């Protein structure tokens, strides 16, 4: 059930927050603000969470000196499907768009007052709930993708980019017959009926890398 905030806003049902920032002062400041909405855990790196991940949580990450890119890489490698909220002071519109394209749920202009923080969370509540519901399916897809060999992954990535078997054969220096063998194994391992299903899984789990902040 969603929590109703002051002013009638409904925030996301999650009440666990991880705040990632190498600057402990910033991390603690945001964590204190979030503590009014649930439990907030500040860390300098996601590795500090260890194995104690809550069932559902939102991850706030400072978009500063590569921290956001490292955090996104960390959760992608581990098949963690929680909403990521980037934060920094006065982000440009271009930066917000860049990060959202790379999988960030939204961008918080921090520091801000409590009302703005609550409005930001309210605006993504439904999207976060959908992400949580899809998490099990996406985690299963992640585990299936991990069963592929390096060569099978190369073939799948090229299929996802729109390459034909002939093009893949030329790019990888293998015969067209070998490409077809790899395709057959990919379909079997991913438990899909055709290449379209395999590509859909690959694209769902693969997002662009976060670009560096432009100064």
Overview of the molecule:
Strand 4 (84-88), helix 3 (93-101) and strand 5 form a beta-alpha-beta unit. The chain contains nine helices and five strands. It is 50% helix and 11% strand. The radius of gyration is 20 Å and the shape is elongated. It folds into two domains: 6-134, Response regulator (Rossmann fold, 3-Layer(aba) Sandwich), CATH 3.40.50; 147-205, Orthogonal Bundle (Arc Repressor Mutant, subunit A). Strands 2-1-3-4-5 form a five-stranded parallel beta sheet, sandwiched between helices. It is of the alpha/beta class and 215 residues long.
Number of domains: 2
CATH superfamily of the largest domain: Response regulator
Main sheet makeup:
5 strands, parallel
- Tell me the Rg in angstroms: 20 Å
Count of DSSP strands: 5
**CATH level-1 class of the largest domain:** Alpha Beta
Oligomer: single chain
Question: Can you write the helix and strand succession as a string?
Answer: EHEEHEHEHHHHHH
Strand order of the largest sheet: 2-1-3-4-5
Q: Can you describe this structure in just a few lines?
A:
The chain has nine helices and five strands. It is an alpha/beta fold. A five-stranded parallel beta sheet has the order 2-1-3-4-5, with helices on both faces.
Task: Reconstruct the topology from this structure.
Blueprint: E1 16-20, H1 24-34, E2 39-43, E3 58-62, H2 67-78, E4 84-88, H3 93-101, E5 106-109, H4 114-123, H5 125-145, H6 150-160, H7 165-172, H8 176-190, H9 195-205
Parallel strand pairs: 1-2, 1-3, 3-4, 4-5
Helix pairs in contact: 5-9, 6-8, 6-9, 7-8, 8-9
């Amino acid at each position: 059930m969603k929590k109703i905030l002051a002013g009638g806003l409904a925030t996301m049902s999650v009440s666990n927050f991880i705040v990632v920032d190498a600057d402990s002062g910033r991390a603690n400041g945001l964590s204190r603000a979030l503590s009014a909405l649930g439990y907030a855990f500040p860390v300098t790196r996601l590795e500090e969470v260890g194995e104690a991940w809550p069932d559902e949580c939102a991850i706030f990450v400072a978009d500063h000196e590569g921290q956001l890119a490292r955090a996104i890489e960390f959760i992608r490698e581990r098949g963690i499907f929680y909403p990521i909220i980037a934060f920094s002071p006065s982000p440009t519109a271009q930066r917000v768009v860049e990060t959202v394209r790379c999988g960030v749920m939204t961008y918080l202009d921090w520091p801000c007052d409590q009302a703005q923080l609550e409005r930001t969370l309210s605006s993504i509540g439904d999207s976060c709930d959908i992400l949580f519901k899809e998490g099990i399916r996406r985690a299963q897809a992640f585990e299936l993708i991990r069963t592929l060999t390096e060569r099978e992954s190369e073939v799948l990535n090229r299929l996802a980019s729109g390459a034909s078997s002939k093009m893949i054969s030329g790019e990888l220096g293998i015969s067209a017959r070998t490409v077809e063998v790899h395709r057959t194994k990919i379909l079997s391992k991913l438990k899909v009926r055709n290449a379209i299903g395999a590509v859909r899984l690959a694209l769902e789990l693969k997002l662009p890398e976060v670009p560096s902040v432009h100064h």
